[in-house]
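USER:
Try writing one entry.

ASSISTANT:
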Amino acid sequence: MAKSMRPLPRLALLCAASLTAAPALADGPAPDRADELRQTAMAYFGKSALDLGVIAIDPQGEGYLATVDFQRAVDRLHLPEGQLAVGRWSILMVPMADGAWKISADNLPWIAFNESSDTGSVSGSMRTNDFRLEGVYDPTLGAFRSSAWRAASVDFKFYTLDRTKSESSDTQLHDLGVTLETQAADAGGGAVTTKFREKDEGAHETVTLTHSSVGAAPASALTSDGYRQGPSEMEGSFERLRTAQLLNLWRFLVASGDQANPEAAIGAQSELRAKLLAALPLWDNLKATATVHDVGTDAPDLAIAIKTLSETVAIGGLDARSDFQLALKLDDLRLKSPLIPAWVEPLMPTAVDFDINMSVAGLDKAARVAIEDIDSTAQPPLSSFSQAKIKAILAAGEPKLILAPGRVTSPSLDLTFEGELALAPKLVGRFKVTADTLDKALAVLAKAADADDEMQAAVQGLTFLKGLAKQGGDGRLAWDIAIGDDGAVTVNGRAMPEQ
């Protein structure tokens, strides 16, 4: 849940950047330069945002104060009074001699909502405490050269009431001090490479449920679930993000949205296609690695504790060959539940190391086919011919899953694995699995089978797998698994029966 707070600073940076995204302003009286900033804001947020007073820009000292009044936009929805309230946001923008802008803000908008009916209600709020944003925005890059945002804490509250069942849920999340720092550099051709680093001092969450009587339990019985995490850090980079082309595309979309004539908007589809194509491949690579310490949950029927959780995500752009990577590592994993039989505990993983990569060629061609054929006036907007062509391109792109060397350990088993699997035109692959021994796991299952006849099948299956293994040079059991282009599966050269 704590991670759900993280998009807020990124949206704040995007909003602040858009207000100063115009080229360096010419020297002149402050009111005139404020008008130019208003024109910039209009290009990125639409004319109505200024006409309705959602965005206001006025001279202040050596710079300009931009005020974003989200409530004015909310009021246009004509919601019942008190259903949704949003605070204002103020950003100070000071021009620099080289055409860049110093950006600062000391608040982030709070949000509160409350909806009620005869059957129940939903309410909540989100507030960022002691927020501070400081950065240098460079219009020639279309990005912040550097930025830093900090918050002492973030509080999120969410409450639901179901009157028909006499049940309620109360969620309280407190995210401790958070910092995010970014640095950007020109990568040429309108692209920017940005590096980012984020630190979090920790978070804790409590969910309290109130429900009507169940069996012998009294009415209004309470159950409480808790979540906690210690310090965490995340760092990564956005390589060659096509900021110039994407900002150009955004301005075009905003201008099209302001078109009063629907036919003019429809006629702009060819220009839209050109701008979409110009933005390809969007970026070269996005990679982020996050590590969280001391993660835990406490609930009546389940308790989980993880000493360290690390995750890496890498996403390639829509290029000639693209990759997607997901890596996950858990250390000192402990799980307790009265619902889990005691004999299962020796089999449960205490550490996991998993890293998978998906690679495919032709995403650039597939994207071009989709863009060149898309028609917003048609239903569906992409023809069946183009859909079939895209599928053919991806099938011919040699889509492949690569499983990097990984490991799963438990008190009774140490398992390693690696391999790769071609997904098209046929499933063809090879995997290698090793284990220190299966004797401990067999002993656990055999003991459980004494009281449960159904466990006999699991014992027999594991015994069969042990018989298929070969002894490795390191003394470990090993299974070389192959999937042929005819669909046949072999284990250490032995053909497996078809299912």
Observations:
- The longest helix spans residues 30-45.
